[in-house]
Design goal:
Shape: globular
CATH class of the largest domain: Mainly Alpha
CATH topology of the largest domain: Four Helix Bundle (Hemerythrin (Met), subunit A)
Distance between the termini: 19 Å
Strand content: 5-15%
Radius of gyration: 29 Å
Mean pLDDT: 77
Helix content: 55-70%
Number of strands: 9
Low-confidence stretches: 1-6, 151-159, 468-482, 587-591
Structural class: alpha/beta
Largest sheet: 9 strands, mixed
CATH architecture of the largest domain: Up-down Bundle
C-alpha cells in the first residue's frame, strides 16, 4: 500500500510514476502531455498570465494582487520581457538571459531589465525575469506572469507574449475603459481563449470615466468582446487597479472596495484554492489514458507480427476504416456539447422569466409596505433615498439568494447529466472501438476508463445603486415647489419604478453568473473529451504505421520484438496499478 501523508507527497509520487511512464511511450504527443503534467506536479502551481494591449494597467493590476508596488509601472510602455512572480520568503529578482546566463538582483533594480525605458525592445537579451516575493496570494501555488503588451513599437516583447500563451493555465485579459478595446486586442482575445482554460475579463481604469459615459463604455467593451468570441457570454470585472493598489498600500479597505477590485480578487483566489486539488487526479487520468492507448498498440503489434503479408494488409485496411470513423466522431463532438448547453440555457431563461414574473408583485408589495412604515414614522422624502436603497438591497438579496440556491442545484444536476452523457458517449466510443479491435485481432484489451472533471465555479453578489442618482439635486429643490403629499407620491413612484428595474437588472446578472460558469465548464468538458479521443486516434495511427512495417520483419527480429513488447506490457501494468491506487486514495480523502 502506498502511504500518502499530504498533498505534496502525493504529487511527488505521481510525478515519479509519470516519469517512469515516459520510458514506455512512443507517441510524441503523449510524451509532451505527460512531461507537462510532471512539471506541474513537481511545481504544485499554475501560471496566471496577465495579457492585453500595452498601457492597459496589467502591471498595476498584478501589483494590486500582490498588495504593494513590486513590478515597474509608468506613463510609457513599461514591461519589455516576461516577468514571473512566484512565492519566496525573501524578495529578489533573477534575470534569465537568452545566452543561458543568470543574474540575481534586488527588486529596486527590476526596472533596469523589465522596462522599455531601460531595456528598449529587450536589447539586453532578457529571456524572462523570475521575481520571488512573500505575498500571501502566491502561497497556494499561484504564479503571476506579467507579459509585454501588444501594440507598442517594440515587437520583441509582443513576440514573447504570443509565445508564452501556449504555456499559460489561466489568464487575465486586461482591457480598459479609456481608451476602449481595439482590433489588435480582439485578435489577442481570440488567441487567449484558445489556450487558457479559464479567462478573467477585466475592464480596467474605470476611475477615468464616470456616470453615463462609463456605463456606455463598459457596455460597448463587453459587447465587442462577446462578438469577437462568437457570441460567447463574457463576464467582465470593471475595476480600477490604480485605486485598488493605492488602497492596499494605504491600508484603506474602503478605497479597495470602491475600486471594484475585491470581487475580482476573491474569484481569482477561489480559482487558486481549487486548482491544486485537481492536479494529481488530472495528471493520473491523462497518464491512464496514455497507458490504455500504449497497451492497445502493443497488443496489436504483437498480433501483427504473427500474421502473413496478405492477412496483415487486410487488418490494416480495416483499422484505417475505423480510424476514419473516429475522426468523424471527433469533428462532431464540439457541436454536440454546444447543443446540449443551449438546452440547459433555454431552461435557465425560462426559470428566470418565471422568477421575475413571480417576484415582481412581491417586490411591489414590499415597497408599498416600506413606504407606509416610513410615512408612519414621519420620514421626510429626502431621507427616503438612503433608507430605500438599503431596504431594497436587503429584499433583493433575500429573494435572489433563495432563487440562486434552488437554481444552482438544478443547473448542477442538468450539467452533471450532460457531462455524464458526453463521458459515457466518448468512453463508449473508445471502449467499443477497443472491443472491435480486440475481436478483429484476437487480442485481450482492457476496457477504457474515461471520466469528466468539469466543475461549476463562480460567485454572485447583489449591487443596488442609489435610487435617485443625478436626480438628487432636483429632489432637494422639490420641497420648495411641491406640497408634501405630492412630493411623497412622486418619491413613492420613483421607488416602485426603481424596485422593478433592479429586479430586472439582477435577472441579467444572475444569468451572467450561470452562463459564465456553464460555458467555462463546457469548455473543460469538450477539452477533456477531445483529448481522450485525439490520444486514441493518435495511438491508432502509430499502430497502423508499425503494422505496415511489421510485414517486412524477419523471424529473428520478430521474436526479439515480441519479447520486448511483453516486457513493456508488464511494466505498463505495474504503473497502471500505482496510478489507480493514487486516484483511489484521492477519492477517499476528498470524501
Amino acid at each position: 500500500m502506498i502511504g500518502v501523508s499530504d498533498g505534496l507527497e502525493k504529487r511527488e509520487l505521481a510525478a515519479e510514476t509519470l516519469g517512469e511512464l515516459l520510458a514506455y511511450l512512443e507517441s510524441p504527443k503523449e510524451r509532451i502531455l505527460i512531461e507537462e503534467s510532471i512539471l506541474k506536479l513537481k511545481e504544485g502551481r499554475f501560471f496566471l498570465a496577465l495579457l492585453g494591449h500595452f498601457k492597459r494597467g496589467k502591471s498595476t493590476l498584478a501589483n494590486a494582487l500582490l498588495g504593494e508596488y513590486v513590478l515597474p509601472i509608468g506613463s510609457v510602455p513599461v514591461t519589455s520581457a516576461i516577468v514571473r512572480v512566484e512565492f519566496g520568503e525573501a524578495p529578489k529578482g533573477i534575470v534569465e538571459f537568452r545566452n543561458g546566463g543568470t543574474k540575481e538582483i534586488p527588486l529596486r533594480e527590476l526596472n533596469e531589465y523589465a522596462s522599455e525605458d531601460s531595456n528598449p525592445n529587450n536589447i539586453k537579451g532578457v529571456m524572462q525575469i523570475v521575481v520571488r516575493h512573500p505575498a500571501s496570494c502566491l502561497r497556494n501555488g499561484l504564479v503571476l506572469v506579467d507579459t509585454p503588451g501588444i501594440g507598442s513599437i517594440y515587437i520583441d516583447g509582443a513576440a514573447s507574449t504570443y509565445q508564452f500563451m501556449e504555456r499559460t493555465d489561466a489568464a487575465i485579459f486586461v482591457a480598459s475603459a479609456d481608451p476602449p478595446v481595439g482590433h489588435d486586442e480582439l485578435q489577442l482575445l481570440r488567441l487567449v481563449r484558445r489556450y487558457a482554460s479559464k479567462v478573467f475579463f477585466v475592464i480596467n481604469k474605470t476611475d477615468y470615466l464616470a456616470g453615463e459615459e462609463l456605463a456606455r463604455t463598459l457596455d460597448y467593451t463587453s459587447s465587442v468582446m462577446k462578438q469577437a468570441l462568437g457570441g460567447e457570454e463574457v463576464r467582465t470585472y470593471a475595476l480600477s487597479a490604480k485605486l485598488a493598489l493605492e488602497g492596499k498600500v494605504k491600508g484603506d479597505a474602503g478605497l479597495v472596495e470602491r475600486s471594484g477590485f475585491s470581487h475580482f480578487e476573491k474569484d481569482v483566489m477561489s480559482l487558486v484554492e481549487g486548482k491544486g486539488l485537481l492536479l494529481v487526479k488530472s495528471a493520473a487520468d491523462r497518464a491512464l489514458r496514455a497507458i490504455s492507448n500504449e497497451e492497445m498498440a502493443l497488443q496489436l503489434r504483437k498480433k501483427s507480427l504473427q500474421l502473413n503479408g496478405e492477412a496483415l494488409r487486410a487488418k490494416v485496411a480495416w483499422l484505417k476504416s475505423l480510424q476514419t470513423n473516429l475522426e468523424d466522431r471527433l469533428a462532431l463532438l464540439d457541436g454536440e456539447v454546444s447543443v446540449r448547453l443551449k438546452e440547459i440555457l433555454a431552461k435557465l431563461d425560462q426559470d428566470l422569466d418565471d422568477f421575475v414574473t413571480l417576484e415582481g408583485p412581491s417586490v411591489a408589495e414590499f415597497v408599498e409596505s416600506f413606504m407606509l412604515q416610513e410615512e408612519m414614522k414621519g420620514t421626510s422624502p429626502r431621507q427616503l433615498d438612503a433608507l430605500a436603497v438599503e431596504a431594497l438591497k436587503k429584499r433583493l438579496d433575500e429573494i435572489c439568494a433563495k432563487f440562486l440556491e434552488s437554481e444552482d442545484a438544478k443547473v448542477r444536476r442538468l450539467f452533471g447529466e450532460m457531462a455524464k452523457h458526453i463521458s459515457s458517449d466518448v468512453g463508449g466510443i473508445i471502449s467499443d472501438s477497443r472491443a472491435k479491435i480486440g475481436r478483429e485481432f484476437d487480442a485481450r484489451l482492457d476496457p477504457a476508463r474515461f471520466e469528466v472533471e468539469a466543475p461549476l465555479m463562480g460567485s454572485y453578489r447583489i449591487a443596488v445603486d442609489p435610487l435617485f442618482g443625478v436626480d438628487q439635486i432636483l429632489l432637494s429643490e422639490l420641497p420648495k415647489l411641491l406640497p408634501s403629499p405630492l412630493l411623497r407620491r412622486k418619491v413613492q413612484n420613483q421607488i416602485r419604478k426603481k424596485a422593478q428595474e433592479e429586479l430586472e437588472r439582477n435577472r441579467g446578472r444572475i444569468r451572467y453568473h450561470f452562463v459564465s460558469r456553464l460555458e467555462e465548464a463546457s469548455r473543460q468538458l469538450k477539452a477533456t473529451a477531445r483529448d481522450a479521443l485525439s490520444s486514441f486516434i493518435e495511438s491508432n495511427r502509430l499502430v497502423i504505421e508499425q503494422m505496415q512495417s511489421a510485414a517486412y520483419a524477419d523471424e529473428a527480429l520478430r521474436d526479439s520484438r515480441l519479447l520486448e513488447m511483453e516486457r513493456k506490457l508488464k511494466g505498463l501494468g505495474a504503473i497502471r496499478a500505482r496510478l489507480d491506487e493514487l486516484v483511489l486514495q484521492g477519492v477517499h480523502r476528498a470524501s
